[in-house]
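for the recovery benchmark. tokens below, seq after
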């Protein structure tokens, strides 16, 4: 528990893994005091992923209001919302539906039931969101756990040889595929990684709130270290992804209905394991706006 939180009605319980903490004693629907808001932002800086349990029955406006505690919101880009899918339910522009549920033969949300491999949300744009906030409305009986990896720690433990090879490198963050590998509508498939569409960001970034350095990776597929030989780029990227996903940096979250999980895209990658497509999973996601990585 942080010193500040000790006088407040909240409890900050670290997961015991490389990142993440559960916040207890909060009903996110109630207006939070300035002190509690400040303590939550501090806890987010320190733990990078925050879990709030038991928040069932929240509506989109309440989810949006809660997310604003951590900064102004960013709308989901159209490409994320419409990628390969038909119609989506009527939700505010700040909300993305993440679901495998179909209504009248059409998907109501993104990502289906497949695996979403390690990635950073929306990093294919120039100013990716600082955070993503995922709210669990319906959870399948098995599968669909979400894991988070601490990219500060991944950098701090990376061998010197690889650090010096990539320290000034930039990487392209593919926008052609979603995190489950589906082709985004209207974006042609990549045949040469040197032509991958998407933002180009530094491989080592600085967290704007803490000054700490982190590895910054988007998606492995179609990634390329700008101006590197493709072979050398592939070798280094394989090394970076393998190291970033090492279980010593990872916390795996097993969802319950009513969970809210907020993660810091500037210092955390995440992945979702698949689940049986015959079962239902429904999440609503908001994004905290961010700036250009440096
Ligand atoms: C996302 C995402 C993981 C999950 O919404 O960006 O990766 O558990 N979701 O659904
Ligand atoms: Mn994601």
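predicted aa per position
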């Amino acid at each position: 528990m942080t010193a500040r939180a000790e006088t407040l009605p909240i409890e900050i319980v670290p997961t015991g893994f490389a990142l993440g903490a559960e916040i207890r004693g909060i009903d996110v629907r109630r207006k939070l005091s300035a002190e509690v808001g400040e303590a939550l932002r501090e806890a987010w800086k320190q733990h990078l992923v925050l879990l709030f349990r038991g928040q069932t029955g929240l509506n989109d406006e309440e989810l949006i209001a809660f997310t604003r505690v951590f900064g102004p919101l960013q709308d989901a880009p159209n490409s994320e919302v419409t990628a390969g899918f038909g119609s989506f339910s009527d939700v505010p522009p700040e909300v993305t539906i993440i679901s495998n549920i179909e209504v009248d033969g059409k998907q109501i949300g993104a990502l289906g039931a497949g695996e979403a491999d390690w990635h950073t949300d929306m990093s294919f744009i120039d100013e990716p969101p600082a955070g993503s906030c995922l709210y669990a409305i319906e959870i399948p009986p098995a599968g669909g756990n979400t894991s988070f990896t601490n990219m500060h720690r991944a950098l701090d433990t990376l061998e010197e040889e690889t650090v010096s090879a990539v320290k000034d490198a930039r990487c392209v963050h593919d926008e052609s595929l979603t995190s489950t590998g589906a082709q985004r509508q209207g974006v042609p498939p990549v045949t040469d990684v040197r032509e991958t569409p998407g933002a180009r960001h530094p491989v080592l970034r600085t967290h704007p709130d803490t000054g700490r350095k982190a590895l910054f990776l988007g998606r492995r597929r179609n990634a390329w270290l700008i101006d590197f030989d493709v072979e050398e780029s592939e070798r280094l990227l394989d090394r970076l992804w393998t190291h970033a996903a090492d279980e010593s940096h990872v916390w795996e979250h097993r969802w319950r209905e009513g969970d809210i999980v907020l993660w810091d895209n500037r210092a955390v990658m995440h992945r979702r394991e698949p689940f049986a497509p015959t079962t239902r999973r429904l999440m609503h996601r908001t994004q905290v706006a961010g700036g250009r990585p440096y």
